[in-house]
Amino acid sequence: MRIQHILVAALMVAALTGPALAADKYLYGSPTLSASIAGTNEFTPGQEIALAVALKNSGLNTFKFVDPTAVARDDLPNTAKLVTAALGADAAPVTVKTDPQFLGDIAGGKSATATFTVKVAEGAAPGTYNLPLTVTYTYLSSAEQYGSDSIQYFYEEKTEVLPLAVTITPDLRVEVLAVTTDDLNVGTEGYVHLTLKNAGYETAQGAVARIARSGTSPVVPTDAAAYLGDFAPGETVDVTFKAAVTTDAEAQTYPLDVLVTYTDSDGDAATSKTVTLGIPVGGKTDFAVVSSGAVLYPGEKSVLEVVYKNTGAATVYNAQARISAIDPFTSNDDTAYLGDLAPGAEGTARFEMNVDADATLKAYGLDSEIRYRDALGSSRISDTMKVQVDLAQKTGSLVTNPVVLAVLAAIILGGGYYILVYRKKQR
């Protein structure tokens, strides 16, 4: 038993007096941060992008000491802790819409990515600009060990400003200086005249100006392209397009999109940013029957005169009125030429109408319409109008007509007077 106790005691003493496990102790090192843009760094004026910034820590621990009495440390000197990144604009023509980003800890040899929403200003001058990325972090500057079981850390906070280079490329920016229209009315086709300016910094090669329908706007382009050639910065051009207006529109201003396609200085196909402008639209072309109801007689062939008025907002050309003869009317001449009618002008149409002898005496409504050409020569047809015609019995004859009776009375009285005077002279 005594030998066993001695062996146990010997093992215990050996365990207490054996060598401790060694701990690594880094004496020198610190974070080294650098920033770069992930992806392209070229942007165009007016563009809004999600700018991904990669923050890399390339810091090294340059001296390591293995100390059998040292306590293992939780942090390394080259670790950037509690990293925060904030992107600024400085003198660059951009707006940063994202608040500072918290990235956590970045160990040596590792990286983290922060994403910022950036809007490039409209009309920004081309060039290369530096965006300041302000990075704030904490790192382990030193540590002191007390005894064999405790250690005190000393951290320092550091702020660095890292430049991020971005390039703003030149572009074509279309500015609309003037808008006028000719004969652009509801339900017709007319002209749209625009004065365009290249307000950007790019010379557009082989430029073509275009108009396009804006959403569900009733203004619909029918001749939508105009060739400009080379369109230099600051240059202005006058272009004309054709457009039609749907019949369900009103007399007001409607949107229309304008853009320019071209070849840029790199030889690539490009398109300017779309500009939406307001196009004034005139009222609908319309007509009205302004003559009073005509009176016709059964069994007779008569001339029906109808006066039409252009109540719309546009001049119509080569207008022709047409009337539809229904029972008891018939006509071999149901079309009449009115000519050109300006807004507010009137024209008289004459139609030969035959009325059946047994026609019912009442008021009738005959359908009538006007076919015309608009300012661009397109054929149009008006809405249907009603022409009122009253059928009446023709009254009076040679013995009942008041005028005829008056004439006869005058003749009789004159004859009687003549006879009376003649007889007196014979006596």
Automatic annotation (TrEMBL):
Xref: Pfam families: NPCBM_assoc
Transmembrane segment boundaries: 403-422
Keywords, ordered alphabetically: Membrane, Transmembrane, Transmembrane helix
Residue ranges constituting the Alpha-galactosidase NEW3 domain according to the UniProt record: 96-138
Top-level division of the source organism's lineage: Archaea
Protein name, per record: S-layer protein
Organism: Methanoculleus taiwanensis
